[in-house]
Amino acid sequence: MELHIENVLSLHNEREKRRKRLEIEMEKILLSDEKKIKMRFILCQKESEYLRLKRAKMKRNMFKKIARLGVGAFGEVSLVRKRDTNAMYAMKILRKSDVIRRNQEKDSIIEQRTYIRFRTKLGFALGAIFVELVLVCPNTHLSYSRVCEWAARFRVGRLSVEYDIRPGPEFTVWTDENIARVKSVVDEQRNCTIKEIAHESVISTGSVGRILTIDLQMWKLCAL
Asked: Where does ATP bind (predicted)?
């Protein structure tokens, strides 16, 4: 409720700023009273149209797909044209099942890191911690190298189990061609690591990881 009120007040303040800006500009160019009334009427029309479009619910059938621009980590991005105005937009279509699965995987990883932190503080051996994770999370457990990595971080005083924020935007090239390239490398070298696949296919390790787990359904490859 508080957020809704803040949004309403913010919209009102923005409208007031635009109205005052218009009044200042009209005074600068010395418009007549008749033209000022006309400009105010045009501004009101524009504001009403903006609010109407903001409240309107968009549906997929309101747009016509022109071309696929690419596939990202959470869905497909397409170039579309709005049927009533012919305006061009970039539409991102999310696959709900993939979003749910990724959220579940992320939750599992966070839980495992939390477990590693407490077991490390209690002095348990890394091998024992890894075996316990394998027994509890047979399909989504962290690799032994990751267990060692996070245990070392917790030993030196790290408390957070969240992902580290990396500077700059993430750019993913996720196409059918890259999927086929990764699959070809894996078929030729079944014991290769993600870094080796990335080097052979000239694709980033992040893209390779997503292609392996999501498109090729491979979970047992070494991360390092």
From this structure: 92
